[in-house]
Specification:
two-stranded antiparallel ribbon, seven-stranded mixed beta sheet, about 290 residues, Aspartate Aminotransferase, domain 2, PyrdxlP-dep_Trfase
Amino acid sequence: MNLRIPGPTPLPPEVLAAVSQQMISHRSGEYRALHQEVASGVQKFFQTKNDVFFFTSSGTGTMEAAVVNTLSPGDRALGVTMGVFGDRFMDVAKAHGIDLTILRFPMGQAADPEKVAEAFAKIENCKAILITHNETSTAIANDLAAITKAVRAKRNPLFLVDAVSSMGNVDIPVDELGLDVVFTSSQKAWMAPPGLAMISVSPKAWEASKTATCARYYFDFAHMKKYHDKHETPETPAISTLYALQAALKIMLKRGVKETFRYYEGLSLYTRTVLMQNGFTLFRMRIFAVP
């Protein structure tokens, strides 16, 4: 089977071979070397100096991690959604008692940066903006650079960003854009099996975590960091998926970070062009489409 969905995605032969490796102890030097290598590679594609943690979970797990580590029940936040997975992010926040104002855009349409900034400005003491970069259900991407600029002309909230299906093949310079919590998962652009979610945490998000009172244990950043600093995880990680990520990152880094983004953009342009030449129409607005 050759899947043509956002994820799970077909695995290159090198990645399939990596998955078949024998298990190792997650408290061994061999594991720590693996963890450190993969974390360093992932950081390069996040374009960040922030901590990047591995959780053995789906992307939805790190949605929850983003919320519970930075916000408290009753905190005011703005949720921006334009489809199914944006709605899921909103549901996670509401489940933890966040006082959420939801700004909806039609499916197939990206968020208007000025409307986001206007909605944010109307919310007194708005602590965070929750937003999906790429809405997987439609392949429409939000312009994070324009949105962060428009919002910060008002005030400077936390930005919690779902990049599950875009990080790794789309240029999202986390540090340059000042994104506070950004998460993705292994089975999308990373050419690996499901099982791991990766999440970056800014210094500002760390400060917020010190006062956040949402209940958390498995997804606790502070608990995770104690182990991450020695290149481990608190619980048993998905070792086979880490092997796969190691192999996939070798492919991606050999091509180069920016070159990888250009490569996928080229494939995307070629695919859309051929489809339209053969009489197909695109659901999505091309200007906002992701590879």
